[in-house]
Amino acid sequence: MFKSVIIDDFRVYRYDQIIHYDLGMIMITEHACIKKSYYQTIIDDNQQGHPIEKLGNMYIEEMQQQLPELSSIRFAQGEIYYMYHDYEAAIFKWQQPLDEAFLPWAQKNIADAHMEMGLLEDAEGFITASRPHLLC
Fold first, then answer.
1. Residue 20 forms beta bridges with which residues?
2. Which of 82, 80, 60 lies closest to 70, judged by CA?
3. Nearest Cα residue to 83 out of 61, 57, 112
4. CA–CA separation, 4 vs 17, rounded Å?
5. Is 133 within 8 Å of 103 (Cβ atoms)?
6. Residue 100 and residue 89 in contact, taking contact as beta carbons nearer than 8 Å
7. How far apart (Å, rounded) are the C-alpha atoms in residues 89 and 19?
8. Which domains does the chain have, with CATH numbers?
9. 3-state secondary structure of 50
10. What is the pLDDT of residue 130?
11. Please, which residues bridge with residue 10 across strands?
């Protein structure tokens, strides 16, 4: 079953329990955000190198644009740092200015990082802030 609704000026598609947020140029899947694997959807598999290197190259390339859009790259970098247990670096990336669609996921991920560091009260505050915006 395929459904589409508009929430806060962006279109949300739901297909077989996978939710896609269509922001024109950016497509975010709920599954990728939950699994912290969004980075896999934006890096070039044919390019050699570690995901951090690939995302760094993407960042430099995007900065050459007149109006760079860095949200997806920063969000993805946070996922990689989280995966390698560098929670402070991940939190830093997720606290940078992000597109509105990434904000609730960034808050949730920041809460996850605080939990991994044993900062449960901080984690609770971030997850409470993100809950009303997440569809899951």
1. 13, 29
2. 60
3. 112
4. 13
5. yes
6. no
7. 28
8. 2-133 (1.25.40)
9. coil
10. 64
11. 7
CA atoms of 36 and 38, how far apart (whole Å): 6
Give residue-wise pLDDT tens across range 18-52: 444 444 444 556 777 778 888 888 888 788 899 99
- List Cβ neighbours of 68 (8 Å cut-off, separation of 6 or more): 62
- Residue 70 sits at φ, ψ, to 5 deg, of -105, 0
Compute the residue count for the chain: 136
> What radius of gyration, in Å, describes the C-alpha atoms of the chain?
15
In whole numbers, what is the pLDDT of the chain averaged over residues?
Answer: 78
Rounded alpha-carbon distances, angstroms, from residue 51 to 19, 58, 87: 24, 10, 17
* pLDDT at residue 133, as a whole number: 55
* Nearest in space to 23 (alpha carbons), one of 75, 56, 94, 71: 71
* pLDDT tens-digit map of 106-126: 988 999 999 999 998 888 888
The token pair at 77 is: 């970098």
Q: Which residues contact 85 (CB under 8 A, 6 or more apart)?
A: 116
What per-residue string of b and e applies to 75-108 under the rule 16 or more CB within 10 Å gives b? Answer: bbbbbbbbeeeebebbbebbeeebbebbbbbbbb
